[in-house]
Amino acid sequence: MWELIRKNRLKSMLLLALMAVVLLLLGFVIGAAVDPEAGFAGMFLALVIYFILLIVAFSQGKKIMLRMSNAREIGKADHPQLYNIVEEMRLAAGLPAMPKVYIIDDPAPNAFAAGMNPSKSVVAVTSGLLNMMSRDELQGVVAHEISHIINRDIRYMTLATIMVGTVAIISQMFFRSMLYSGGRMMAGSSGKKKGNPVMAILAIAFAILAPIAVQLLYFSVSRKREYLADASAARLTRYPEGLASALEKIAGSTQDLKVADKSMAPMYIANPLKPKGQRLRNLSSTHPPLDQRIRILRGMGKSTSYAGYQQAYQSVTKSGKGIIPPSALKG
Amino acid sequence: MTSTIIIIVVVAILVIALISMYNRLVKLRNQVKNAWSQIDVQLKRRYDLIPNLIETVKGYMKHERETLEAVTRMRAQAMEASGVEEKAMAEGRLSAALGQFKIAVESYPDLKANKNFLALQEELTSTENKISFARQNYNDQVLFFNNKTEMFPSNIIAGMFGFKKEAFFEIQDPQERVVPKVSF
């Protein structure tokens, strides 16, 4: 388990570094398009925006997420079974403290985890999920959420989400200012210094491509982390069928989560926003297809270890490459 | 002059390495202790639940005196057991007795309408799950710790400061080896 966390950390750092490079390049190119000497100022501005958003997310993220989804905290007396299951999974995962438990009043079956720190975490489930699931299924879902906490997914996905957000904001700012200035800024006719036309074209290209690039990076990592959380959930419960049949019920439900928001999607157990088109589904989804996740879990048979998940993953996706780093398989 | 500096640096690095290995061992041993105390809390919780449960079902299950007495007896034995291995053995027997009890409950449909019993049943199910999940985690922690005490180079430190291997918490009753999937 610790090996998996360590490997995850390495990969996440790499991803964040890549995204940061895109962000800085975007800042530089846009800056330079406005004024040949403003490249580094643009980079600096991009970083400032990123850090401001970061501070907000780290200090308020959990609160914002809970408020946005209308979650209410419960105690053991309110829903003994849910509370018990969360406590069971806390023990299995060896979390240092009991997560706070929340219920979201929404008929769509879903759940999410929040909290940057494993000792101050939150698990929230919808009332729809509670109504629909058996005890074993609920346990599978909660195990998946607790796995996001112990694998440190929440921390890294938040950092990455903000990166995606910052790139989007900067691109938007650029296009808006272009629109309002009627392209004057590009031609450089109103300024004393002339903007570089090559830089202007580059800036337009970057402002279009950068948001797409960071999102694709982000989606691929988010999907990988879903698989890993499934693998960890199977290992914690020693019963992959619980989660598999819960996912099956979620796949069968046609309801969209009313309170869902795009920025929160990777924290949920299943994508709360059903994709409308099918074509780009695989590339532009925060979650792997449910039927695939179910088939992998069912393919595990009696072996509930990471190695068992790896084997099932390889046979279902027919890929030679596994989802779990080899050094983590022993655990 | 340079050679003394080199010697000092090498010695400093060695000392730091030794200290960090020692600290790592202490940390792992504390994690084992903590994991054990988590099991202990849940075992006590099960002891507390059993008298309530027996009290609730006594009126319904008049023909199951032996089963109920066995549960009570095993509970008393488990409470007295000490040490990881002895405890594991006694807990295995208690779990087996409770297993018999759960099978017996099946033939009393009236019980399933009793709110009090249903609540106790959820508590017992959950407590048994908690015991097995806490045990899972404890055994993982013991494995990490034991590996560290046996593997080079930390085994040298372990030998010097008397870090001993910890025992796994294994349930002795063969029936208990399967994860209990309890649904009354």
3D structure, described in words:
Chain A has 331 residues and is mostly helical. Helices cover 63% and strands 5% of the residues of chain A. Chain A contains 11 helices and 4 strands, in the order H-H-E-H-E-E-E-H-H-H-H-H-H-H-H. Mean pLDDT of chain A is 81; it is low at 187-192 and 275-281. Chain B contains 5 helices and no strands. The termini of chain B are far apart. Mean pLDDT of chain B is 84; it is low at 174-182.
In short:
The complex is a heterodimer of chains A (331) and B (184). With 331 residues, chain A is mainly α.
Could you give the count of β-strands of chain B? Answer: 0
Shape of chain B: rod-shaped
Kindly estimate the percentage of residues of chain A that lie in beta strands according to DSSP.
5-15%
- Poorly predicted ranges of chain B (pLDDT <50, ≥5 residues)? 174-182
CATH superfamily of one domain in chain B: LemA-like domain
Give the radius of gyration of chain A. Answer: 22 Å
| Total strand segments of chain A | 4
Number of helices of chain A: 11
The fraction of residues assigned to DSSP E strands of chain B is under 5%
Q: Which quaternary structure do these chains form?
A: heterodimer
Distance between the termini of chain B: 79 Å
Low-confidence stretches of chain A: 187-192, 275-281
State the helicity of chain A in percent bands: 55-70%
The biggest beta sheet of chain B is recorded as: none
CATH architecture classification of one domain in chain B: Up-down Bundle
Class computed from helices, strands and strand pairing of chain A: mainly alpha
Structural class of chain B: mainly alpha
